Amino acid sequence: EALQLCRPAVELRGMERSLLYTELLARLHFFTTSHPALVGQLCQQAQSWFRLCAHPVLVPLGGFLQPPGGPLRAPLSGCHKGITAMAWGVEEKLLVIGTQDGIIAVWDMEEQHVIHMLTGHTGEVRCVKVFAKGTLAISASKDYTLRLWNLLTGQEKFAIWDGGSKNPTEPQIWSLHVDEAYKVVYSASASKINAWNLETAELVFHILGD
């Protein structure tokens, strides 16, 4: 099962070799003592490659991906179509999940059930950030909007048209950073950065790259 989990990395053409060896070591190191002839040799080959690599690669000395059959607490399924973003609210123990169809699910991780299904986005959710001690979240979507959510009530506080190029060939990078001290969220997509006031939804400033 651990080898099956490595399969996408092995089959992906053009992948950085360091990433391939990192994933092999991360997934298989747990089994080196129980399968020294096969797994032990594979891990030794990966470690030898790291020692000879011309560029530094930071890799833990032990496996760091949970092997199949380990202490899994619970699977979360049944309400998501293509998970594209996740954020964790530690104070309220809420897991916020964005999906390809624009829906955002809010999970109560103590009770392990969905408490809210947040609808409003009409495109794939690309980024989610939780803040305000786990009570608020802001999401960015391919529909070029940012939406602020109250995670306790499940209500949308406001939506912002963040703009963006609809040219499918232009590379798009969605990223959010929340500055709670100044009550500002910074959004980055394609070649622009916007700063929005989290209380008034007004634009603070706009930076456009070349």
Spans with pLDDT under 50 lasting ≥5 residues? none
Total strands: 12
Q: Report Rg.
A: 21 Å
Gross geometry? globular
Into which percentage range does the β-strand content fall? 25-35%
Distance between the termini: 47 Å
Could you describe the 3D structure shown?
This protein starts with a helix and ends with a strand. It is built from three helices and twelve strands; from the N terminus they run αααββββββββββββ. The radius of gyration is 21 Å and the shape is globular. Helices cover 19% and strands 35% of the residues. The chain has a four-stranded antiparallel sheet with strand order 1-2-3-4, with no helix packed on it. Strands 5-6-7-8 form a four-stranded antiparallel sheet, with no helix packed on it. It has 210 residues and is α+β, with helices and mostly antiparallel strands. It folds into two domains: 51 residues, no CATH class; 125 residues, YVTN repeat-like/Quinoprotein amine dehydrogenase (Methylamine Dehydrogenase, Chain H, 7 Propeller). Helix 1 runs antiparallel to helix 2 and helix 2 packs antiparallel against helix 3. A hairpin with a 4-residue loop joins strand 1 and strand 2.
Per-chain topology:
Elements: H1 2-11, H2 17-28, H3 36-52, E1 83-89, E2 94-99, E3 104-108, E4 113-118, E5 125-131, E6 136-141, E7 145-150, E8 155-161, E9 175-179, E10 184-189, E11 192-197, E12 203-208
Antiparallel strand pairs: 1-2, 2-3, 3-4, 5-6, 6-7, 7-8, 9-10, 10-11, 11-12
